[in-house]
Amino acid sequence: MKKTFIFITTMLAASLGSLAQQTWPMPGAEWTYCLYSELGECYAEEVWRVTGDSLIGNKAYDVIQPVDSEGHPAANTGKMLLSRYENDTVYRFVNGKEYVFFSFNLTEGDVYTTFRSAGWGIDGIAHYANDSTCTSQRPLKVIRKTGIELGGLLLNEYVLEDTLFSTLYGFEQNRQWLLVDRVGILDTYPLVDVNELGFYDSETGTVCTYAVCSPYAELSAYRDHGFEQVWYVCHPTSLGDNRANNEVTLYPNPASTWAAVDFTLPGDAAKATINVTNALGVTVLSAELHGNTGQKVLDLRHLADGVYVYTVRCREHLQTGKLVITK
């Protein structure tokens, strides 16, 4: 009788653990983002939570949006995600239609289609629910699925490739996104948007361009009732108001074959890293900065013309900016 009781208890616990993971968003889900300006300064921290639900037709959707310090929906942001969960799949309602957002039963090689949001319009204003100038369809292919340890849990990480990206925007490589169980999309807002500057030319037809626009966001932390993961702490004042204590200057900019990085690290810090990423989010150059203050010369001869983003990390401090290369 005792063995039977243990067996049933174990099975019940396993079942409850499985059920706890098979939903999105998780109870108490909270996403924290650091927002960066054109100059690469962190000027604000933004927290997203479930603020309510909305009945559309006969389906109920969670309303996920930025909140203020009291947990109320933040005013005048234009940012909102309507999502619902069913059978391991998360659906998003946008632009008057429901799309598959992502799924937690994907395997390598799977392809599904979601909504292609422009993210940014040609007016430079965020339009997170706007249709892309080129196509509403974003086919995403799972090119890799691996298990990772995050916040003390073993979770699945999916690399999703936008298979139309290079065709639409003229890049050699397709844009990739990271999806993690429980958390959702890691790379930016939980919207899988792009920084598209699109317009329609009556003579030549539709023209689509993609650029790294600002302000832009990075996910710095995620938590729910049973889980927490902090990648770094967002300190807007340390990157903005106190730049004298944490200053990084990159020049010349635009650059052609090389660029110098003059740096002063905060406090007694004696080491930092600088990463340069292209428009696809791929790291193309990395270097270490040694000493509390100094200069590092970056060799750019192997990089093509374009707009890049450089990120300097020192302890919990983060500073980013744009680097333009023209040859």
Dominant shape? globular
Q: What is the typical, i.e. mean, pLDDT?
A: 79
What is the helix content? under 10%
Strand order of the largest sheet: 6-5-4-3-2-1-16-17
Helix-strand pattern: HEEEEEEEEEEEHEEEEEEHEEEEEEE
Structural class: mainly beta
For the biggest sheet, the summary is: 8 strands, antiparallel
Number of DSSP E strands: 24
Measured distance between first and last alpha carbons: 79 Å
Taken as a percent bin, the fraction of beta residues is: over 45%
Given as residue ranges, the uncertain stretches (5+ residues, pLDDT < 50) are 1-20, 238-245
Tally of individual helices: 3
Q: Calculate Rg over CA atoms.
A: 22 Å
Question: How does this model look, in words?
Answer:
The structure is a single chain. It contains three helices and 24 strands. The chain is mainly beta. It is globular.
Keywords, separated by commas or semicolons:
327 residues; five-stranded antiparallel beta sheet; globular; eight-stranded antiparallel beta sheet; 24 strands; mainly beta
Can I get a quick summary?
The chain is mainly beta and 327 residues long.
Secondary-structure map:
Layout: H1 2-21, E1 30-36, E2 42-56, E3 59-67, E4 81-86, E5 89-94, E6 97-103, E7 111-115, E8 117-120, E9 126-131, E10 137-150, E11 153-162, H2 165-169, E12 176-180, E13 184-185, E14 196-201, E15 205-210, E16 216-224, E17 227-230, H3 236-239, E18 247-251, E19 258-264, E20 271-277, E21 283-290, E22 293-299, E23 306-314, E24 317-325
Antiparallel strand pairs: 1-2, 1-16, 2-3, 3-4, 4-5, 5-6, 7-10, 8-9, 10-11, 11-12, 12-13, 14-15, 16-17, 18-19, 19-22, 20-21, 20-23, 23-24
